[in-house]
Design a protein that fits this description.
The protein has 258 residues and is mainly beta. Helices cover 10% and strands 58% of the residues.
Length: 258
């Protein structure tokens, strides 16, 4: 009996340790520039787009995050967002689909002794020249600052990009701001609220969606996957931009770093 109880106790300790690791990883994934190799697959749906408000758009984002550790304790963290877009009636009576412009960001990131994580670096937009592309090269700067306090993670990511050509197809001067706050539980659930707002300095218009998300870290065959579902609302958008509710689904696969 004593041996059986010891085996059960050992199994319980192992399960507790695994749960604690999952909870810690779930909270780390609330950091957009965590030094973790991850591959999010994200699906977004928006509607009421275009001059007639009859358009709908579905965007599938493949956005791998790859960190590179430096000898001084800092990291270079890269994120590449590759969107594939399907849209109907955004231009009345027509449909388009294809790869949207690719956005590449890189941050030199470090965590201070006070627990503040910050990062700064370049951001580049590569046009794909598809039916859903701006057909315009753009680049700029990006920065992020965040802090973890117990189960809470909060901060903001921002960038600004300008077009790189003198006669752009799509004149570009845009500021993106993403404040975020999340709460992670010991059972590896994460609840978050964020806004992915853009100000177009040329059109002088805001696009402000507010998103609420629920995520759960559930390993599949030993591979950690952070499953997320979310809903949002367009608090403000241009006259031809999306309106009303939006939906988001995401699976974020975590890969070994070494």
């Amino acid at each position: 009996m004593h041996m059986k109880m010891s085996a059960f106790a050992a199994a319980g300790l192992a399960a507790t340790s695994a749960n604690a690791q999952d909870a810690d990883l779930a909270q780390q994934l609330a950091n957009p520039i965590a030094a973790i190799v991850s591959v999010p697959f994200q699906l977004n749906f928006d509607d009421k787009i275009g001059v007639t408000d009859q358009g709908a758009r579905t965007t599938f984002n493949f956005q791998p995050v790859i960190p590179f550790k430096m000898d001084n304790g800092a990291n270079i963290v890269t994120r590449t967002i590759v969107p594939y877009v399907w849209q109907d009636d955004v231009v009345p009576g027509t449909s388009q689909q294809g790869f949207g412009d690719v956005l590449f960001s890189a941050w030199y990131s470090k965590t201070t002794e006070g627990g503040l994580t910050w990062g700064a670096g370049p951001v580049i937009r590569f046009p794909t020249y598809s039916d859903v592309s701006t057909e315009t090269w753009a680049a700029g700067i990006t920065g992020i600052a965040l802090r973890t306090n117990g189960p809470w993670t909060y901060g903001a990511l921002a960038n600004h990009i300008w077009n790189l050509t003198g006669t752009p197809t799509t004149p570009t001067s845009a500021t993106f701001v993403q404040p975020f706050v999340s709460y992670s539980t010991p059972s590896a659930w994460t609840f978050s609220v964020t806004s992915e707002s853009t100000y177009d300095w040329i059109a002088e218009e805001w696009s402000i969606p507010v998103n609420a998300n629920i995520a759960k870290l559930v390993p599949i065959r030993g591979i950690p996957i952070n499953w997320q579902i979310g809903a949002g609302y367009w608090a403000q958008s241009p006259n031809t931009g999306p309106d009303g509710l939006r939906v988001r689904l995401q699976a974020q696969i975590v890969l070994p770093r070494d």
